# Entry
Amino acid sequence: MTRMRHSNFLGNLDWMTVCLWFILCVIGWFNIRAAVYDPAHPGLFSLETNYGKQSLYIFTAIIIGFAILIIDQRFFISTTPFFYILVILLLVAVLVIGRNVGGNQAWIPLGSFRLQPSEFGKLATCLLLAYYLNTQTNKTPNLNTLMVGCCIILLPVFLVMLQPDTGSALAFFSLIFVFYREGYVSNSVLIFIALAILLFVLALLIPNQWLLVAGITLLCAAAAYFMRRKRKYILRIIFLYLASAVYILCVDFAYENILQPHQRNRIDIILGKMDDPRGQGYNLNQSKIAIGSGKLFGKGYLQGTQTKYNFVPEQSTDFIFCTIGEEWGFMGSVVLILLYLVLLMRIVHIAERQRTVFARIYAYGVASILFFHFFINIGMTIGIVPVIGIPLPFISYGGSSLWSFTILLFLLLRFDSARKGLSN
Amino acid sequence: MGNSFFERKYVILGIFITIAIVIVARLFYLQIIDDSYLLSANNNVVRKIAVYPARGIILDRNGKILVQNEPVYDILVTPREVKDLDTALLCQLLDMDRNDFQERMDKARAHSPYRSSPFEKMVSTETYARFQEHQYKFKGFYVQNRTVRSYPDSLAAHFLGYIQEVNDRDIERSNGFYRPGDYIGASGVERSYEELLRGHRGVKNLMVDALNRPKGVFMDGKYDTLAVSGEGLVSSLDKDLQLLAERLMKNKMGSVVAIEPSTGEILTFVSSPAYDPNLMVGKERGNNYMELLHDPTKPLFIRPIQASYPPGSVFKVVSALIAQQAGVITPHTIFNCPGGYRYGGGRAIMRCTHVDGPTDLVKSIQRSCNTYYGHVYAKMIDSRGMSGPKAYDLWREGLTKFGLGAPLGIDLPGEKGGFLPSASYHTKNYGNEKWGSSFTISLSIGQGQLGITPLQMANLMAIVANRGFYYRPHLIKGIGEKQIVKEEFTEKIWAGVDEKHYEPVIEGMSRAVSSGTAAGSKIKDIEMCGKTGTVQNPHGENHAVFFAFAPRVNPKIAIAVFVENAGYGGVWAAPIASMLVEKYINDTISLPKYIQDRIYNADLLPKTLSKPPSQETKVSTTASTRSDHKHTLSPDHTPNLLVHHSQIRRQYD
# Structure
């Protein structure tokens, strides 16, 4: 049986996902090259340049991917807790021996390369969450399990926050989708979260919070009036009303006292409360200029002036989408977004065909993390979410991020290719 | 199996798709609908660098250079690139002290550490040469060359004018043509032909990066335009004649205007005191300009077109012509000259310098007889079967046809029209319409309420030389390679007096030179016809006037010379005109050396003006000048007689 699985594991491989992965990596390489392109040094693979290094990272990623595919999946499953502990130790270590880059103590220097443990934190957390929930499948979803699951997530979040790297920390919360899918979180919680985000934005947009509270009061009163026959709903409305009123009053406090000034500024800029294209809003403004100037078909490869001439900061890492938007235009951007969407849908599809709960949960974890990165990264470059420094999976320059996302994806492919031989 | 929440897959997929749609929608807005980002992108990255065209050069009528462009060097600095600078050496080479150096560096740094900004402007070629030798030691310093105006003979400042940096109003009016730092013609030909001389600026589209470092040409220069040099101009000026005229007028106040009658081209255009046009160029321009502006002799004042004087006796020429045309006199009309003209019932007299007895038209011009013209004017105004004011207006109309009372339309900015009041002006002054020739009798001999610019005088002479018509006097006879002449300067303008009436006047003028008031200035082999004038000046010495044309047949030059505060026209103005006419026609000067030297060496600048301006000169502009002037010849009892000297005189009385 083992021999059979080994002999045709490539046949069971989801080649579509592999193709999508490879296409995204290649797109990434080309755009990293465009972002740092210097006509005076047009060499393709010089390790002096980011794109030269990225080709090395991609090559390594292919090897890593292949290695994952030939290793028995049970090895990964059984070592999950140890891997998690290792990553947690690394996250602690980075706080001690890490190198501070751009205000974040997120890097462990390894020779000429640097390792970013938080990138692997997501992977380990995702794995352990699947591992743990897998052990709980015989029970109906309950609060205890949820609490333990949350702790698995919150431990690395806490450590990452200490770096402090808010962006990476937030990415862990995307695993909420996993809880939702597995029934630990109800629909109403999802709506509740959506509502909370909406109220947060409203609370910041409307300068007088009492005005907002008054509005909510009216709304709830109207709702209660229409639902007056149904006692159950009335109680819910009252609860919701009280919760939101308190929440609104808390938002302002939290905003002023918990968030860092630069985080407040980023939110203010997104909400249009602050206009500072030369200071706090410089990144976003330049990013929008770069993308907006791409028009329908873009300026052509290597023809983008905004990214090439360094108007956009962090253009090969967090703001790599600017290069795509500028040089490939709306058409190119839409193609990229479709690629991601197809990849995400494919992963969900893969998830649902798994026979093991572990693999399914893991797959949803992968989908959630990729989705979060995709949404937040592109969203920040086009000004619909605040600037949060997280990479665009497979495309942004950087070894740690490319490797961790590749491992994330290829582990899933490994579990998927072995699904026929596995069952709970 | 914990797969009871299978349908939640759709919710999750729904969220993924919704977010993708939100992103696409936002991209659609950013990239397709909103155009402002493309604009900002270009503003970000494209720097439009102006390529300055060479300003058109100006030649004299014989192709000799009057204005050309000379290279100067601006030294630029890019503060960020300055390294290991030998400050002491740099300061020494550029002749500046340490503080000055620091100030300039700070200014440049404040402008931009990455972009070059001017460190020292308009460095001379010599300084540049010295600087260049050591330039390798000055990292971050660059030299940019451009051109400035240069006047090889320091000639014809008033005619050529000068250029200066544009001010906000120029920029506004030009609809964005000019940018701060551009130069614009501010006076003279430089101003009136600005549109032709300036050429068209080219644009180079350079790309820069976020730190403003140049990164090459935008779109392979697709949107670049070449600079088109300004048109060259050929002026009507004769450089040698101008040179001589300026030498002759040195240390004198006044004007010389010479016109080629057959074309209206101005051969000489002198306003004295003049200044060196090169003063208006270069680093010291500002100081020089202020000095000239505050010079009591008003060197910036363009006397030939801005000063208006009563013409004095030369006006008799016009009087005679108009009176003949009106039929008031014929060449044979004779008036008796008992040494003066009595008017106002014999109570007042306008004296002559002589007692000639019976005088005819020719003799009246030759001898400059006041009596004769008193009679002529009286006949013009009093005996034409109409009221005095009406007759006066008719007479005035005749004068306007000679180009008096209004600007002639020369191609120079700032031309004044002189002063030729209408009848209603006098009526208002006298309080009623019952006034006649005796009220304004001084006009008959070109005194009183009459102002004529030297240019109008010269043009008057051109009309006489042409026997009845003129071309608008102009300074530019050819524009660009095709030597285009402006249409308005090719139009023949009739002066309203028939040709036959000119001969007796010309005969009189000829005799005036050969054996009359200007006898000392006659020229061998050339029959010059001229008329002297000595303008009464209640403020000091009389103004000397002479105008003439020559030769009598096929005249080549008509000239007016006006020397303020000099005395007799025959003594001061006529020799100057004579020398210029002979120089122009025969290229020699045959006037005795002692006369020449007397002219060259004369310093006729009012002594009071030699002093630098003091406080009181600034204040005394109006009040003192409006005082009553007792005029022996004029019965005009106008309390606020407009002063008929150049405006300069008024200010320093």
User: Anything to note?
Assistant: Residues 320-353 of chain A form the longest helix (34 residues). Chain A has two domains: 2-185+274-421, 190-258. The two ends of chain A are 17 Å apart (CA to CA). Chain A touches chain B through 53 residues (CB under 8 Å).
